Amino acid sequence: MTQSSQTRMRRIFGEGVFIAPRLMEEMSEWVIDDLNTIEFMTAGLVAVADDMPMLVHESTMSPNSQSAMRDCGLSIGGNVITYRNRQDYIGQVTAIAASGLMPVFQHANPPGLFDGCDPAIRDETIRFVNDKSNLGELAGPHGAPARRILDPFDEAAALGLKTPTVLKVATDKPNGGATDVAICRKRRHLPRAYKKFSSADRVIVEDYVQAAANWSVRYEILRGAPPRSSGSSRQICMRNGVHVGNLINTADAPPAAVLDLARTVAEAGRERGYFGLAGFDILVDHAGRAWAIDLNFRMTSSSAFGYLFDALAEPRGMTCGRLAFCFIDHGLSSFLARCRPAFDAGWLVPVSTFDPAFGEAEPGQARCRMMIMGRDEADLVRNERRLEALGAEFHPLRKPPFRRTFLPSSLFRATTF
Q1: pLDDT for the residue numbered 414
Q2: Contact status, residue 202 vs residue 150, Cβ threshold 8 Å
Q3: Which pLDDT score is estimated for 404?
């Protein structure tokens, strides 16, 4: 990383704090239910940690992984602290807080779990800004699709809805990853959505937006200065709507309406007491109007990706980059060894990894977030195919033609039926 980025995390989060990123299992109903994924998610900022103290699971810090990251020009911060399991994480958060540092939690915690800690951001703030039922208030009167809440969410109300429509769980628990959203384009989709959300007390009914583009805008929300954008990327989705990564093209930028809306949301979050990293999902319809559909007041999967692309792409002659979520069946160490030519060529960079063979983790696939780069769009696709040939399982972009990836019907970071 360049010298200019060495203190970035300190500038964003300030002094006297540490990042406590783990999602607690009892809070994961509307995010994920896989323990290894929960642990893997803690390493989202490792590649850009600088000197910021942060806790990550030990399986994200295998020696082979750290070696590969260093060989790709990254530096792992000296204040990254590993934990073994849930109880070790709780104990370390408590001990570090007792030493005088304040935890910056990335997710709301179960009531009472960390009562002895003085958090840098109040739990009620994290709950409010990430609750989709408050999206309209944060985005302003014209920044979100028309919406109403079904309370209670019963079968008769669900099956009587007009389609197309979008359903979202109204919860102040952590949410995302498509678990809490269903797009119902036809009436036959409604029974499946009802079954999916049958345990939810309240569900948002939101107008369906026919989108021409789907942007993720990253923000740094500071305590002592106005919020500032740290970049943007297009969201990559499968045709069934599931989010599978992000794409940056230096020739591509969101329209002013998207950037204006993102700034409005960031300022509203700051006024509520939030600071740190955030990422906002914003659709653009065919009339050019911007609509906020998901607000992530936390580090997101694309947080480190954006910083790394900004630092590495231009010196290496790259104009395009994408974040890919990769799964590996034959072991992380073997896979990283096979990736060595790609690392040396400069077009592949490991953003974060998880090796269940290292540390205390459940058996399963190794996984990693990879930044794939190209000198142009066609080169990026060629490099994706090279990565597939090395044994990575992920959802690549497809040609021809490249931009068909972004058909309106595939632009939603949500589960569709």
Answers
A1: 38
A2: yes
A3: 37
Predicted local distance difference test score (pLDDT) of residue 376: 96
- The mean pLDDT value of the chain amounts to 92
Closest by CA position to 63, among listed 358, 373, 308 = 358
Do the Cβ atoms of 336 and 279 come closer than 8 Å?
A: no
The rounded distance, in Å, linking the Cα atoms of 230 and 335 is 31
Mean pLDDT of 125-136: 98
Distance CA 44, CA 299 (A): 7
Structure tokens at 137: 């208030």
Give the pLDDT of residue 241.
60
**Residue 393: DSSP 8-state:** B
d(CA 15, CA 29): 33
Domains in the chain, start-ordered, CATH in brackets? Answer: 3-121 (no CATH), 147-208 (3.30.1490.20), 305-406 (3.30.70)
The answer, yes or no, to whether residue 3 has pLDDT greater than 80, is no
| SS3 of residue 340 by DSSP | helix
Burial of 287 (0-12, 13-18, 19+ CB in 10 A): exposed
| Alpha-carbon radius of gyration of the chain | 21
Sorted by sequence, the CB contacts under 8 Å of residue 37 that are 6+ apart come out as 367
Sign, Cα dihedral of 413, 350, 309, 9: positive
DSSP string, 304-346: HHHHHHHHHTGGGT--EEEEEEEEESS-HHHHHHHTHHHHHHT
Give the three-state DSSP class for 411: coil
Residue whose token pair is 């669900």: 158
Considering the entire predicted model, what is its pTM?
0.93
Amino acid identity, position 388: E
Query: Hey, how many other C-beta atoms are within 10 angstroms of the C-beta on 376?
Result: 14
Confidence of residue 416 (pLDDT cuts 50, 70, 90): very low
Question: Which residues on neighbouring strands pair with residue 366, listed in sequence order?
Answer: 328
**Sorting pLDDT into bands at 50, 70 and 90, what band is 224?**
confident
Q: Can you point out the beta strands (E) in 110-255?
A: 147-150, 165-169, 181-184, 203-207, 211-221, 228-237, 243-249
Contacts of 387 (CB under 8 A, 6+ apart): 324, 326, 339, 342, 348, 370, 372, 394, 396
What is d(CA 256, CA 302) in angstroms, rounded to the nearest whole number?
21
